[in-house]
Design goal:
By secondary structure, the chain is an alpha/beta fold. The chain contains five helices and five strands, in the order H-H-E-H-H-E-E-E-E-H. A hairpin with a 6-residue loop joins strand 4 and strand 5 (124-131). It is 39% helix and 19% strand. It has a five-stranded mixed sheet with strand order 2-1-3-4-5, with helices on one face. It has a single domain (36-160), classed as Rossmann fold, CATH 3.40.50.10070.
């Protein structure tokens, strides 16, 4: 009886291994293309959708427009885009926002988000999100904000490259 149970288990394991070996493995997929508008853009408009007017948070963001100002400065240093002050002049739009849905007094870690849009159609082309890696209320809160915004800029650079 015991030998039959062992033999049954061995046959079952062999049949499972045989089926697994015959199951086609998914082919390695190639990278999907980045939208042409994103790659070919020369002039960028940066929209301030940050919503960083929470008085507790603005202490760490250099004021109510601090997140926008830092992202604007970081994109400017990339040298990839000419930053324009009018939507009608832009080939691409970057809108920076702060996601407070993960933000509360117990876990004060907002996320920063960039939505990349086509200015002619308002179609969303791409999104970047970076969490804040430290407590916004700490003494180092402004450092954590700056690091998060810098990571967003790095994400952008990795995707579209340098000029």
């Amino acid at each position: 009886m015991r030998a039959q149970a062992i033999l049954a288990m061995i046959l079952f394991a062999a049949s499972v291994a045989s089926v697994a070996a015959q199951t086609p493995q998914p082919a390695e997929t190639s990278a999907a293309p980045v939208p042409a508008q994103f790659i070919n853009a020369k002039r960028a408009f940066i929209a301030n959708g940050a919503g960083d007017n929470n008085p507790d948070v603005t202490k760490s963001t250099n004021g109510p427009n601090g997140i926008y100002n830092q992202f604007y400065a970081d994109v400017k240093t990339l040298g990839r885009y000419e930053l324009v002050s009018s939507l009608s002049e832009a080939d691409i739009v970057f809108e920076i926002t702060v996601d407070y849905t993960v933000f509360n007094r117990t876990v004060p870690y907002p996320q920063f988000r960039i939505e990349v849009r086509d200015p002619k159609t308002n179609v969303l082309l791409w999104t970047f999100t970076e969490p804040m890696t430290g407590n916004v209320f700490s003494k180092s809160g402004s450092k954590y904000v700056a690091q998060s915004i810098s990571r967003l800029t790095d994400d952008l650079k990795k995707l579209v490259g340098s000029p």
